[in-house]
Amino acid sequence: MNWQRLANTPLGIPESLEIWEGEEENAPLRAWLVRADLSSGEIDVGVFSSKDDDGRQSAMQFAKETGACVIVNGGYFKVRDDFYSHIGLLVSDAEIISHATPGIFEDDLRYPVTRAAIGFSSTDEAKIGWVSSRSDSVLIWNAPVPNIPGTPAEIPDLNSASLWDVDGAIAGGPALIKSGKTRITVDEEVFFGTTIPDVHPRTAAGIDEEGNLLLMIVDGRQRNSRGVTLTELSDLMKAVGAVDAINLDGGGSSTLVVGNTLLNRPTGGTFQREIVSAIGITCR
Asked: Between 20 and 30 A from 284 (CA), which of 17, 25, 195, 210?
């Protein structure tokens, strides 16, 4: 991937934010990368939940409503009776909006799950792990429940987890990288039997060795950008320095807004699918 940094001034963002545009003609691929220095004091990172009546809104609406200078789409969602709700853990302003997914039924078997999430402390420290939630508490593990297709794992021992004091968190999955090594936990997080591992437009979130937040969008289903598999997404994130990374919701949801400008082409144009959650960076 050939990366070129975009100028900050036209986008109205501080130097602690780097916006890169990438292109690979042979694939073909087009991608965008946000590298955010969370220790700079110039920016704050947060997780946002839609407050619209139907539970969803566009990335641009999130940006205007919150004043965020960067917005990317967040986790998966579902609809019931015309109301859209988040799938899996969603914490915003230290409040659990949606609990972690406790289990998944597949082929008449129930698999207990701990799906990957990224979260942020009140001091903007980012962390990635596998999560569960109980009452008003969030629990985090350094490894997922070891499910195997056809063989559900045991219910996880809560004593092996740590309490996660998190101001904002958002689950997606599967994980892509852990401690600098490729670790795509499709089976453990029970994404097997789905199209999640296939070629799609993508959104990923990661952390590098310095603690910087990395947000990546890859366009797909277009003539000049086909999208990527989970393995390719992991490779792209490792190439830009991620030591931990997760996959977020993709497809037509994958959207990047910077300085009230839509940078990517979510569905091959400027239409923005409405989403339930987002990761946002606010410039002070």
From this structure: 210
* Domain extent at residue 159: 31-283
Report strand pairing: 29-36 vs 17-24.
antiparallel
Q: Is the dihedral of CA 272, 278, 283, 284 positive or negative?
A: positive
Question: H or E stretch including 62?
Answer: helix 59-66
Look at residue 152 and tell me if it is in a domain.
Answer: yes
**Could you tell me if 279 and 45 are in contact, meaning their C-beta atoms sit under 8 angstroms apart?**
yes
pTM here is 0.98
Total domain count, the chain:
1
Is residue 24 domain-resident?
no
Per-residue pLDDT reduced to its tens digit, 5-28: 999 999 999 999 999 999 999 999
Residue pointed to by tokens 């390719």: 232
Identify whether 18 is part of a domain.
no
**Per-residue model confidence as pLDDT tens digits over 195-226:** 999 999 999 999 999 999 999 999 999 999 99
Q: Is residue 140 part of a domain?
A: yes
